Amino acid sequence: MRHAFLDRARPYPFGLTRQAGVGPTIPAPANMAVYAPAGEKWVVHVLHPDGRRTRHPLNNRQYDVHFGIIPDVVDGTRYALSRADSEELILDPYAPAVVESNGEYWGSYVEHSFDWRRDTRLGTPKRKTVIYEAHVKGLTKLHPDIPERLRGTYAGLAHPVMLDYLLELGVTAVQLLPVHHSIDEPHLVENGLTNYWGYNTLNYFSPDPGYATEAARKAGPSAIAVEFKEMVRSLHAAGLEVYLDVVYNHTAEGGQDQETYSWRALGDDVYYVKDQDGNYVNSTGTGNTVNFAHPRVVQWAMDSLRHWVSEFHIDGFRFDLAVTMGRDSKHRFNPRHPFFVAVTQDPVLAGVKMIAEPWDLGPGGWQTGNFPPGWSDWNDHFRDTMRDFWVADRGRIDSGATGGDLGRLAQALSGSNDIFNASFRGPFAPVNFVTAHDGFTLKDLVSYNYKHNELNKEHNRDGADYSRSYNHGVEGPSEDPDVWGQRLKTAKNLMSALLISSGIPMICAGDEVLRTQRGNNNAYSQDNEISWLDWSARTEQQEQMFQLTRHLIQLRKTLLEGTLQLEDQTELHKIFNQRWFNAHGEEMSQEDWWDTQRRTMQLMMSGELDSTVLVVFNGSPDRQLITVPVCAMAPGNSYRLVASTSKHGDQRRGAVITAGKRESIEPFSTAIFRCEG
Q: Which member of 118, 132, 412, 551 has the greatest number of CB atoms within 10 A?
C-alpha cells in the first residue's frame, strides 16, 4: 500500500524535505524540489550506504520548478541532480550539507535536531555592540591551553579559555569569516595553496566541515551541524553574539570557463549577470556575479539567511560586496531593491543585524552611507581618515612635509555624519574599523611601507598597493626601542580613536595584541602561522596594547550606558553631546578646522548619566600645552586621566587636572580624561 505522502509532491519548499515525525534512521519518503529553468527533465541520484546508486525522475514541473518524491531517505542520505539525458552530477543549491565522494560533490540530507536549552538570539543594542572579527581556525589553532583536538575548530572557539579571553577583552560580538561550505579556486590548488578566508562558497546551508573536529567529521554532516550549534550556544551563554560573514555576491563556479557545480547547469542565465553578448559581468572580481535582479535568486538568499537564523540562532550577517545584492536589471544599485525590502519585512530576520560591505567593482560600486534603514555599513571613510591622520600623515611630517587638517578627523569621529546623515539611520549606521581581515594588521600598518605578499605566489601583484601605512623609519621588524616606541604609540592612537568614535567599532582579531602577518596585506591563501594568532607569552608592548584596548572598551560602555535607548534615534546631539575645542580651550573656529598646521584639538563627550569624557588629540610633532576647557557637567571642573597613548601614559594614569589650567600633551599622542567635578 502506497504511503499517502508519496502522492503529494510539492514545488516548495526547495531542496529535500523529509516526512516529519519519523526517526532520523528510519527510511521515509522526502519531497524534492529544484528551480531549474535550463533543462526539460531532471533526475535525482541517490547514493546508498552500500554503494548502490538509484535514479528518481522529477516528473512534476511548475514554473520551471521540478519536483517529485524520493523514497527511503534517512539522515545522511547522499543525493545529486542531473539532466535526464546525462550522468553529470549537479549539486542541489539547497543541499542541507555537501559531501565529497571520489571527486564528486553530493548533497547530504541533515535531520536538524538540537537541544538549545532555551537559547535565543541576544539582541545586544547597537549602542553597546563591539565587534571582534575573527577566523574560526586562526583564532585557536595555536592556543596552548585548548586541547589539541579542538584547536582550529568550532569546538575550540567555544572552549572556556577562549570565552574567558573574549569576555576579559570586553567585546560583545564575534564576527566569523565565512563558515559556509567553501572550496579552493583552481589557481590556488595549482600553487599548493588554499582559500583560507573561505570567500568561495559551494553551499549556503551548511557549516564548512573543515572547521569541525575530526570526531564530528567522521560522524558526518549532522554531527558537524551539532558542533556548530554547540559553539553558538556557548557563545550566547557567555553573552556574545555571533555574526557570519556571508558571500552571496558570487559562487564557487568562477568564470564561464571554470567547472560547473550547480547554478550554472540549473539556470546560467538566471543565476548570473551577463552582458548583451552573453558574457559574465564580473563586478566581484571573481569571475561571476550573482543576479539579484531575478526573484528566484532573492528567494534563494532569503531562504539561506532564514535557515541560519532558525536552525543555528545566528545574530547577524556581514555581507561581502553587498552592493551586488542591491543591483537591479540594469545593474544599478537601488537601496529599495526587492532583496532589501524582503529582509526588512521578514519576521524571521526581524532584529537580526545586517551589515554591508558597501562596495563592489561594478559601476557606481561605492555606496557607503546609502544602504536602507536597519542596515549598518562598513565605514571606509573612518578607516581611511584615521590612517591618514595618525599613520600616513606621520610619515609625511617625519619627511618634512605637512599633514592633513582636523576637520576630516572630527567628521569621522562623529560617525561620518557627512556621509551617513542622508540615509536617516541614526548614529550607529557606520561600523567603524581601522583594520580588517583584508589588508595589513594594525602592527603591520605601522611597520611596513610596502606590501610583502610573495608567499601568495602571485609575484606580489595581489593586495592593495597603497595602504596609508608607515614603517616609522625601518621596513619590517626592528629592535630599535625608539622605532618600536613610536610604532606602539601610533597603534594606540588608532585603537583609541576607534573605541571613542560614534558608530559600532570593529576590532580585527589579534590587533589588541599586535598580531603580525609579516607584511602580507592579502593573506587569503595563508593557512599557516602567518594568519594564525600567536598565543605565546605577551611582550611588554603587547600587554600594553591589550590593556589599553580592554580599558577603552569598558570606558566606551560606561559612557554610552545611558544613551540612545531607542535604536532609531537619529538626532545624536540631543542625547550624546559632542563639543570641540582648540588647544587654547576655545570652541573650534573655521580657521582651526582647516589649517593643516594646527593638529591639536579637544573633544568633550557627554552622555545622559552625567558622564563626561575629554579626549585630547595631538597629531603634531611638537609637545603641546593645552588649556583644559570647562566641563558644564561638573561644578568643580576637575578631570582625571584614564588613558593615554604617550610613552609614560600608564604611569600618569589617575593624575588630576583642573579646567582652565595648562596640560602638556606629548607629540603624536592621545589623552583621555574623565570629568569628576
A: 412
Tell me: the pLDDT tens digits for 204-228? 999 999 999 999 999 999 999 999 9
Query: Residue 662 pLDDT more than 50?
Result: yes
Residues 502, 575: Cα–Cα separation, whole Å: 13
Task: Output 182 or 650, whichever has higher pLDDT.
Answer: 182
CA dist 637 and 644 (Å) reads 20
**pLDDT of res. 4:** 47
Is 320 among the catalytic positions?
Answer: yes
Measured torsion, CA atoms of residues 613, 614, 617, 622, in degrees rounded to the nearest 10 = -140
Nearest to 217 by CA among 337, 98, 106, 121: 98
Confidence (pLDDT) at 607: 65
| Dihedral, CA of residue 457, residue 458, residue 459 and residue 462, to nearest 10 | -130
Q: How many CB atoms sit inside 10 A of residue 676's CB?
A: 14
Helix 295-312, helix 338-345: angle, nearest 10: 30
Q: Angle, nearest 10°, between helix axes 540-560 and 160-169? A: 70
Residues with Cβ within 8 Å of residue 188, at least 6 apart in sequence? 194, 195, 525
Q: How far is CA 594 from CA 109, 209, 382, 591, in A?
A: 62, 53, 18, 6
Three-class SS state of 547? helix
List, in order of start, the domains of the chain with CATH numbers. 4-108 (2.60.40.10), 379-561 (3.20.20.80), 573-675 (2.60.40.1180)
Q: What is the mean pLDDT of residues 265-278?
A: 97
Average pLDDT value for the chain: 93
Q: How far is CA 151 from the centre of its chain?
A: 21
pLDDT of residue 10: 95
Mean pLDDT of 380-401: 97
Q: Which residue out of 357, 393, 405, 592 is catalytically annotated?
A: 357
- Give, for 398, the enclosing helix (H) or strand (E): helix 393-398
The two counts, helices (H) then strands (E), for the chain are: 18, 27
3-state SS class at 197: coil
> What stretches of 446-529 show up as alpha helix (H) in DSSP?
481-500
Determine the Cα–Cα distance for residues 69 and 46; give it in Å rounded to an integer.
Answer: 12
Contact (Cβ atoms closer than 8 angstroms) between residue 126 and residue 139:
no
pLDDT for 647: 85
DSSP-derived letter for residue 331 is S
Name residue 50's amino acid.
Answer: D
Q: Which of 92, 111, 245, 320 is catalytic?
A: 320
- Residue 8, pLDDT score: 85
Question: Which of 449-458, 559-568, 618-627 bottoms out in mean pLDDT, i.e. has the lowest?
Answer: 559-568
- Residue 609 clears pLDDT 70, i.e. is over it: no
- Nearest 5°: CA angle at 254, between 252 and 260? 75
Q: What are phi and psi of 124, to 5 degrees?
A: -60, 130
Residues facing 76 on adjacent strands: none
C-alpha cell at 116: 538549545
| AA identity, residue 609 | L
- pLDDT tier at 634, thresholds 50, 70, 90: low
Active site residue 377: no
Q: CA-to-CA distance for 87 and 83, rounded, in angstroms?
A: 7
Residue 342: the pLDDT is 98
Structure confidence at residue 650 (pLDDT): 79
Q: What are the grid coordinates assigned to 654, written together? A: 589617575
pLDDT over 90 (residue 39): no
